[in-house]
Specification:
This protein has a five-stranded mixed sheet with strand order 4-3-5-6-7, with helices on both faces. A two-stranded parallel sheet has the order 1-2. The chain has 236 residues and is α/β, with parallel strands linked by helices. It is 50% helix and 14% strand. The structure holds zinc ion. The site of zinc ion has 8 residues, from α7.
């Protein structure tokens, strides 16, 4: 029989190992959910910095400890999300996890191929006009099935509607015969990010005006599903 002291020691090691299995250390930050008036004061650059800090925690496997009860209380009456994220429905790209975000922090719109249509753009406008959000992120990702289907000119039921929103932006890449299949897909995914941003700006006067005045920042990002890394994509 192990002595009680020895058993306690083993138990303590087990707890430390369980907590540290991903982080190699205890979670470093306790995030209780901020008073949302504070979130509203962030500049677009600060909002981006905050988002990227969350991604660093995700990559380091050191997510902040989230007090969901407090976050619910803080957001019960009002929300001021730090960023609008328009991204694909792909199961490997969950924005709340990738940016280590709590309740009320990011306003997420997900649709295959992160396409901009009147519903997507209307949702972005709502966040920008009524919730005071000053950062819009269009997040594309590696191995995107929707973009790949558009490259292959898939026509199938209602998926065709999605294809019609992606194909015009990548038509030069579809025709290109110099690139490998893999290069074509990566180029098309990155081109699609820019194309969807141009669609959003083209169809929304409100977003365009706020963007031009500097009141609003727009960021294109590419997420690598194989590594968890994010890279910023030029807007044009
Ligand atoms: Zn996708």
């Amino acid at each position: 029989m192990l002595s009680k002291k020895y058993r306690n020691l083993i138990f303590t090691f087990f707890i430390i190992f369980s907590l540290g299995i991903c982080t190699n250390s205890l979670p470093s930050k306790i995030f209780a959910g901020e008073p949302h008036a504070e979130l509203a004061k962030f500049s677009p650059e600060e909002a981006l910095e905050r988002l990227l800090e969350g991604h660093k925690r995700f990559l380091a496997c050191e997510p902040a400890i989230k007090d969901f009860k407090k976050a619910i209380a803080n957001t019960a009456q009002i929300q001021h999300p730090n960023a609008v994220i328009v991204t694909c429905s792909d199961s490997r790209v969950p924005p709340e996890i990738l940016f280590d975000s709590n309740i009320g922090e990011i306003f997420v719109i997900r649709v295959a191929g992160n396409i901009m249509d009147p519903y997507t753009i209307g949702s972005v406008e709502y966040a920008v006009q009524h919730l005071g959000t000053r950062l819009i992120v269009i997040l594309g990702h590696a191995k995107c099935g929707a973009v790949n289907s558009a490259l292959c000119k898939l026509r199938e039921g209602n998926i065709t509607y999605l294809m019609n929103k992606i194909e015009p932006g990548i038509k030069e890449i579809i025709k290109d015969s110099t690139m490998s299949e893999g290069e074509k897909l990566t180029s098309a995914i990155k081109k699609n990010i820019k194309y969807q941003i141009s669609q959003m700006l083209g169809y929304s006067q409100v977003i365009q005006e706020k963007f031009k005045s500097g009141e609003l920042k727009i960021a294109g990002m590419y997420y690598d599903v194989g590594t968890g890394n994010l890279s910023m994509e030029p807007l044009q």
